[in-house]
Amino acid sequence: MATSEPQRGSESEESTAETSSPVVSNPEQYIKHPLQNRWALWYFKNDKSKSWTENLRLIAKFDTVEDFWALYNHIQQPSKLGFGCDYCLFKDGIKPMWEDDRNKLGGRWLITLSKQQRHNDLDRYWMETLLCLIGESFDEASEDVCGAVVNVRPKGDKIAIWTGNCQNKEAIMTIGQLYKERLNMPLKAILGYQSHDDTSSKSGSTTKNMYTV
Amino acid sequence: MSSGCQKTVSQAIPTRRVTVNDAAQLPHDYSTTPGGTLFSTTPGGTRIIYDRKFLMNCRDSPVARTPPRYLPNIPGVTSPNTDEIKLEADHVSAHVDKQAGGDESQFEMDI
Q1: What is the pLDDT of residues B78-88, one digit of tens each?
Q2: Were both Cys, which of A42, A93, A160, B79 would link to A88 (CB 3.0–4.6 Å)?
Q3: Of B28, B48, B64, the CB nearest to A36
Q4: Does residue A134 come out as left (phi exceeding 0), alpha (psi in the -120 to 50 range) or beta?
């Protein structure tokens, strides 16, 4: 089956493969560093004409440090999102909702930001949160992490790390303490952990904290 | 083939924890296959931990400066924050204003 003209695609691929080895001066630059987990970044936009799940959109999945930055560097920061929008970063296979089997017994460390903090802290806190997750910053307790959510709201934005079981006190406390340190929050600031059960059943504005750091 | 044959004792496969602070410390065989399947870690084995400094150093790597290939177009998220309200309005009326090229006058209605 010798045809005179080879297919363009395969030809160009082969020729670059053959000639590339002497050209790459620093292969280290092109190695991607694998993450412990594969992560999915979701975007939620509050469109009242659609259902909650219709408003939830997967942006991309990644499992290397470089692919994380490629994504992060090419999407808007939370402070540039419209009101009512969220970003959610979750381990692949866990949906960013309470109802998911891996979330339903869990809860979240919740940071409530003031309006002024949108300019000063929101983007920085969110990036630190992402780095904590993908870098597995909580040692063994990283197993308990399901994901993180940022809510952009007119009254004040929120950032939370979700964990899988609100009874795992030890893991939750480890995560809370390390998270507070990483965000450089003042010692006197109080970070609270709330179970999803309490959050979803409480209709008022305050949910009781199961744990605090 | 000497006579000093030692008995082997079965042992658990050793695991070790490695904190990577710099790219140079990462073994060369840590990598991903095309499409992203991870190899060189085993279940329950080494947890891959990256500290903040290492992650930040990767931020401007050549690979990270290229947009991901299959990024969906979500205005205001993956593409520049154009006027979302206007976009939506355009979208709704797109079938009306195609022919007239978006001229204002076309919105006049016969009543």
Answers
A1: 987 655 444 44
A2: A42
A3: B48
A4: alpha
At B66-77, the pLDDT tens digits run 888 889 999 889
Rounded Cα distance, A84 and A152, in Å:
6
DSSP, collapsed to helix, strand or coil, labels residue B58 as coil
What does the block give as tokens for A32? 């991607």
Looking at chain B, which residue has its C-alpha nearest residue A62?
B36
Summarize pLDDT for A188-209 with one digit per residue, the tens.
999 999 999 999 887 666 789 9
Neighbour-count burial of A51, counting CB atoms closer than 10 A to its CB (0-12 exposed, 13-18 middle, 19+ buried):
exposed
The dihedral through the CA atoms of B24, B25, B27, B31 has a sign that is negative
User: Helix, strand, or coil here: A63?
Assistant: strand
Q: Which helix (H) or strand (E) holds A69?
A: helix A65-72
Contacts of A35 in chain B (CB under 8 A): 48, 50
